[in-house]
Amino acid sequence: xxxxxxxxxxxxxxxxxxxxxxxxxxxxxxxxxxxxxxxxxxxxxxxxxxxxxxxxxxxxxxxxxxxxxxxxxxxxxxxxxxxxxxxxxxxxxxxxxxxxxxxxxxxxxxxxxxxxxxxxxxxxxxxxxxxxxxxxxxxxxxxxxxxxxxxxxxxxxxxxxxxxxxxxxxxxxxxxxxxxxxxxxxxxxxxxxxxxxxxxxxxxxxxxxxxxxxxxxxxxxxxxxxxxxxxxxxxxxxxxxxxxxxxxxxxxxxxxxxxxxxxxxxxx
Length: 268
Hints:
Blueprint: E1 5-8, H1 12-24, E2 29-32, H2 38-45, E3 51-52, E4 64-67, H3 71-77, H4 82-86, E5 90-93, H5 100-107, E6 113-117, E7 127-133, H6 139-149, E8 153-157, H7 163-172, H8 174-191, H9 196-216, H10 221-228, H11 234-242, H12 248-267
Parallel strand pairs: 1-2, 1-4, 2-3, 4-5, 5-6, 7-8
Antiparallel strand pairs: 6-7
Helix pairs in contact: 7-12, 8-9
């Protein structure tokens, strides 16, 4: 039991959080979602989760309210949450780019705020979430926020809020970069003559297995890379391309920078 929890927005990430909370016995749980997925509607019809279409329909004293809305939607709806925040509820937002200054402006300077940035592997409990707490948040608030986000996987705290935008660019958006790598690797495999099914299977299994090895072997990723690279071998030939001046490192750096700048723009 954590006290009453309100989840606003039960899309992909909100739904993953809800599933994790139910598995850990957190609650009681309340959900605001005007377009619920079939599984959520099933849970609501079975009486397991009170489901509401509008925020105004919720009339319980809450311990915490987690807002899983897109940034543009949160900007539009933030004012409707002011009574909840001013009632002493811990407010947690996972919207990219929306900083605590904006949220405090909408909810009051005394509002207790935590920003978090989870990522999509949280849907299978293998995500990572970075958190930042406003000065008004208590130690108990921080502990509760961490427990709630841990339902998706690992957690870490950042001391400066501006770092949340960098987190968004690295781990928040990062799964898409990895999926694109699989696409590119499969396309390259097909270009070298492999059938489509074999190319896709090889690319996926290679990335999945490499991720598992990273998880099992805690040495630096550079050390693991060197283990695969024999001098003068096939991997070394490929890495000459990937580590060239216009290779993977500057490309990733530009991509992450662009994502961070976009996170800043979403909050302005």
